[in-house]
Specification:
alpha+beta, three-stranded antiparallel beta sheet, 5 helices
Length: 116
């Protein structure tokens, strides 16, 4: 039985729904990164990073590259980097909207005067 597209999308976003995975993907946007550098940037236990990389690798979003004893990871395609850029744009728009609403609320509070 085929999984409905909306369910497949939900699973995809669920898979992305971990801060370490998002951080790894951000770090990989500019090209392959050795595991030791990922560990330095993310500052988590090696076993935890390994688990998160395994999830990303199984999903097909990242690939591993071995060069001698060094293992690096890279994005499997450019679409993931575009998705992260889109998420950044959406979050920026949301935060700008919230900031404007907060300013309006503060202005409304000062124009009403002190409570009785």
């Amino acid at each position: 039985m085929q999984v409905p597209l909306y369910q497949a999308k939900a699973e995809f976003f669920r898979m992305l729904g971990h801060p370490v995975r998002i951080r790894v993907l951000e770090l990989l946007q500019n090209g392959p990164v050795p595991v030791r550098e990922l560990l330095n940037e993310i500052e988590i236990e090696p076993s935890n990073l390994s688990q998160q990389l395994a999830v990303l690798r199984r999903s097909g979003i990242v690939i591993s590259i071995r060069d001698g004893s060094t293992v690096s990871y890279a994005l499997a395609g450019g679409d993931v980097a575009e998705l992260l850029r889109a998420a950044r744009r959406i979050l920026t728009e949301l935060l700008v909207g919230q900031s404007e609403l907060l300013a309006e609320l503060r202005d409304a509070d000062t124009s009403v005067g002190p409570p009785l």
